[in-house]
Specification:
Elements: H1 6-32, H2 40-63, H3 68-79, H4 82-99, H5 107-131, H6 136-169, H7 179-204, H8 218-242, E1 255-256, E2 259-260, H9 261-266, E3 270-272, E4 281-283, H10 296-305
Antiparallel strand pairs: 1-2, 3-4
Helix pairs in contact: 1-2, 1-8, 2-3, 2-4, 3-5, 4-5, 4-6, 4-7, 5-6, 6-7, 7-8, 7-10
Length: about 300
């Protein structure tokens, strides 16, 4: 068999990465249960899409099969990869704000964003199907649909980024079991931004550009698509493994009422007006964070250490 071309090598890397990611994501879904899966199911969906797309590309490369069906499969699975990542973050934020004690974002906001995500996903699927068509008019329509979908994805990202930052600023009012979800969401934002910008640029790039949708440079795709997705997937998987499973009442296993022992251990002075069970606890001022504390590596480290 002849050596793989760069496109085939990238497809092989995707299969190698998303195979284990699928298994771990599936475990996380069952660990949290369907009732509290928080969008983990979308990680499973993304892994399946990438495995199918990578396998189609590998088949095309190794079997010299460039039939429309194979190319269409590879293109569509590539086009719809943005939505699952955004929907996972949406699930994180919805859980946190649903359980936050003060000033949480309303459910109607998340429902609206979810509907927009589904709309953009449908546009991406139809656009990808039309672009794979041999008809010039269908390809033009597909290109337009991809452009519309990419703009919606960008708007969704901006909305989720704003909610993530707002939620992080109110982290002290969130349930301690949700802190890792907040940290993971914030840590993923820079990588998600690059991934979304890639989608937008590819949708609007002109013929001859390294971003042109039908002939994207493989190294650009490897960095702005695969690598960024991989970072986000790893961050989300770590959050899924470290986040406590919710009980039937929607609380984390390590939470006791509105008080978490982990929170009492390292968050500054604590005053209690009542030493009895279920008493209201007031917390002292927490250390002010600097901009340096918001770097992704620090947030990931804090999430792993439970701070």
């Amino acid at each position: 068999m002849a050596p793989l071309q760069p496109e085939g090598g990238l497809a092989a890397a995707e299969v190698a990465f998303y195979g284990p990611a699928l298994l771990i994501s599936t475990y996380i879904v069952f660990r949290h249960g369907l009732r509290g899966q928080l969008g983990w199911l979308y990680l499973v969906t993304l892994s399946i899409l990438r495995l199918v797309g990578g396998s189609a590309t590998l088949w095309s490369e190794t079997q010299n099969d460039y039939s429309p069906a194979v190319l269409e499969t590879a293109f569509i699975t590539s086009a719809v990869g943005t939505a699952p990542l955004l929907l996972v973050l949406l699930g994180f934020l919805e859980r946190v704000n649903d359980r936050i004690t003060v000033g949480g974002v309303g459910k109607w906001v998340f429902r609206g964003i979810h509907l927009l995500s589904i709309t953009a996903l449908v546009l991406a699927i139809i656009g990808g199907t039309d672009i794979a068509d041999r008809s010039a008019s269908s390809r033009s329509t597909g290109h337009t649909l991809l452009q519309a979908g990419s703009v919606i994805f960008l708007a969704i990202y901006l909305a989720l980024a704003a909610i993530t930052i707002l939620t992080f600023r109110r982290k002290g009012d969130a349930q301690p079991g949700d802190w890792k979800l907040i940290d993971a969401g914030l840590a993923a934002l820079p990588f998600l931004l690059v991934r979304i910008l890639y989608t937008v640029i590819v949708a609007f790039a002109k013929e001859g550009s390294v971003f042109y949708f039908s002939d994207v440079d493989v190294y650009v795709s490897a960095f702005m698509q695969f690598l960024m997705e991989a970072f986000v997937v790893v961050i989300f998987i770590v959050a899924g493994l470290l986040t406590p499973k919710q009980d039937k009442e929607g609380r984390g296993q390590r939470e006791i009422g509105s008080v978490d022992l982990e929170r009492a251990g390292g968050r500054g002075p604590m005053r209690s007006e009542d030493a009895g069970a279920g008493s209201k606890v007031e917390w002292g001022e927490r250390r002010q964070r600097s901009a340096w504390d918001y770097r992704p590596s620090k947030l990931i480290s804090d999430a792993i250490s439970g701070r």
